[in-house]
């Protein structure tokens, strides 16, 4: 069986094009018809015949049946019993309604029925969607020579401090500057590189298509520089011998761990590149010029994560089901000799617990979600094992705010949310919205209810399970669906910025998108009010005086 990293890379290589350019993005603003089977109810019998069990006690006179009060009471009871029996039989024969695949559950929300409410929504792949800049507060597209399967943010020292203190900024003071580390999938193995990108002067793009609607407040926030182009400065590391499956930065520092196609797990110091980018100096280093360490494995992998609680702790998982723990000791990384081997398939993703440094979660092609406590010393057994899906589990995300919630995304396009307080129970939410494999999933860093999901169907969806189901109309688009981002081919990974509220970077076969969707209702109301005021005609003072003069003459 091919691991997901092999399948993802194969699909991506079919789409590799130098200097590819994204032409369109789309935000779903229209309703999509649901596709349900009609279930017809069985017709009730209009006539019910009773046998004469009382024979000699019935008296017939001119076609009428005469019964006494005692017989009438018996017949009424028998008729009621017969009707109840027939109704029960009808209910048993009636086909079961097809369950939808959205479980409308969330923390603190009352359950409307005892069974999970599940829904499925279908996209018409031939449907043409129009791109509207107003759906995004900010949207910037970046293309590189070679596409990347994976990327991660590098933070400035100030941002790292905010990240450690869990400070999140609902920042609308443009322009933004972000740093990204990424690993390539080149057409030839020796052409692969590690990129470090500086994306600066990223202004609000919401009104790019409508200059007249740019309010004074927006202009001030954006320093009257909407026409100013964003800038990209790129530094790179050459000398790689193969492609990069996944890359993760150590708590936002310019130190990255990455999986190679050849099975190596490497830890690389990117600080020489980062320091030059601070002053917009682009550079290129050979791998041999940088401090790095390589750990050999028999098989390649994709699963990789740094601990947020214990600096330097790293974990990796490979396609042969092995999970290794790495620890920082005297400025050097050491890997444990003994691997964790409890999965029956390829390990696809790993996440450290946000509140316990000795606990991590894993998922696998065997369909399971596992939680491991390293203090137990059990390398062949997980402390919690959940049969999460009936197919490959590709990705997981551990909620940073509510540490009992873990999300899983599967090969069939379904994603679920689990409450680890009740590991034997069903998922508290199950959504089948995407029609192809889930490729990435992440809870918003400062929210216990918002989550973003990307899929091989070229869509990225954003959900908020704190949204109440207002009309409970099962034919509508789900209330919890906040946003759908499109325009990228073969989406591979998404990342929320650790500090900047609602900012997402997504990587695909045709480059990166960095965007902030328009989700804030208060901001929408404020902007709508500004637009309404702008449409009110302005009366000049001289015209007003003329009007008053005419009134006085009359």
UniProtKB/TrEMBL annotation:
WD repeats lie at residues 386-421, 431-473. Keywords: Repeat, WD repeat. It comes from the Eukaryota. One of its GO terms (cellular component) is nucleolus. Residues 26-116, 208-232 are annotated as: Disordered. Residues 127-203 form the Histone-binding protein RBBP4-like N-terminal domain. Residues 32-73, 208-229 have a biased composition (Acidic residues). PROSITE patterns: WD_REPEATS_2, WD_REPEATS_REGION. This is Histone-binding protein RBBP4-like N-terminal domain-containing protein. It comes from Paramecium octaurelia.
